[in-house]
UniProtKB/TrEMBL annotation:
Species: Flavobacterium lacisediminis
Keywords tagged on the record: Membrane, Transmembrane, Transmembrane helix
Transmembrane segments: 18-37, 57-80, 87-106, 126-145
Protein name, per record: Uncharacterized protein
Amino acid sequence: MKTTTENLTEKELKKLRLIIFVLSCILFIISLTQTAYITEPADSIASHAFIAFLTGWLNFMGPGISWFANPLLIISWILLLNNKIKFSLISSFISVLFCLSFLLFNKIALDEAVNYGEILGYGTGYWFWLTSCIIALIGSILINYKEKNINLDN
């Protein structure tokens, strides 16, 4: 039978997992409403984060490789909610790496005819997206640390 202290800590961890999930999701959703990157020509619809989310995988041989942060982030959320913290930590870490890989590219396809434009800067959508992945990673690290401390105390 579990003691009151153990039940309390389990409830706290569950609440913390939920807070991290919700915060990361909110930042991700906000990112989709923003400009992901700034290009020349500036009127490229592909620079809108929601369009980049839908079509980014099409350019997987270039900057689109960064798009793979999205399924990894979603997987990390699922693992986090299902208390698979170590796997969530790994998934969110790789997600952050994929997000950061976007900074390594200086050109991106602007349309379906694969006309390329220079990436001049990064919009708020990109930074919200990256922050969403980082929150999932930091949250997984924090929960993993707290779980280890609970196990050491018992």
